[in-house]
C-alpha cells in the first residue's frame, strides 16, 4: 500500500472470467469501476450506482453481488465472473441461449446483470436455499428441491430491474433453463 497526495492505493489480485489480473487502484474503487475502467470488461453496466437496479450484477466466488457496492480492495483473491465468462458469442451458455430464444431482452442494457443474477439464482435454488415465497413445508425433507415456479423466479430476480419490461420473457427463459428445456450447444448445431 502506498500513499499519494492523500489517496491510498492498493494492489488487488482477482481472477476475472478465468484470467488472473492484478490491479493497483485507489482503495475506494468499486468492483464495477475496476472491471470497466481498469480491465475493460464492458458487459458490466452502471445503472443506478446505488445497488438498486442490478445492472452491475456479477458473480464473486459463485455468489451474485452488485458490483457498484463492492469495494475491489475487499475482494483480493476472489474469482469474478461476468456475462462474458458464462459463454462466448459462438458458444452461449444454456441460460444465455434461453434469453435469446425467448427474446428476453429489448434494449439489452440490463441483460448481463440479469443473466449473472439468474445463473446464481439457479444455483441457489438447486442448493435448496429458500426465498421469501418458498413454502417452508416443501423444504422439510433435506433432499427437497425448490420448485422454480414463476412466482419463485420473480421473487428471486426482484433485485434486477428491466426498464423495457421484458420480465415475462426473462422468467420464461429462466424457467426453460431450470427445467432443462433450454437447448444445449449440440442441439443448436
UniProtKB/TrEMBL annotation:
2Fe-2S ferredoxin-type domain mapped to chain residues: 10-86
InterPro entries tied to this protein: 2Fe-2S-bd, 2Fe-2S-bd_dom_sf, 2Fe-2S_ferredoxin-like_sf, 2Fe-2S_ferredoxin-type, 2Fe2S_fd_BS, Aldehyde_Oxdr_Iron-Sulfur, Beta-grasp_dom_sf
Keywords: 2Fe-2S, Iron, Iron-sulfur, Metal-binding, Oxidoreductase
Pathway: Alkaloid degradation; nicotine degradation
Protein name: (2Fe-2S)-binding protein
Coiled coil: none
Entries under CDD domains matching the protein: fer2
Organism per entry: Serinicoccus chungangensis
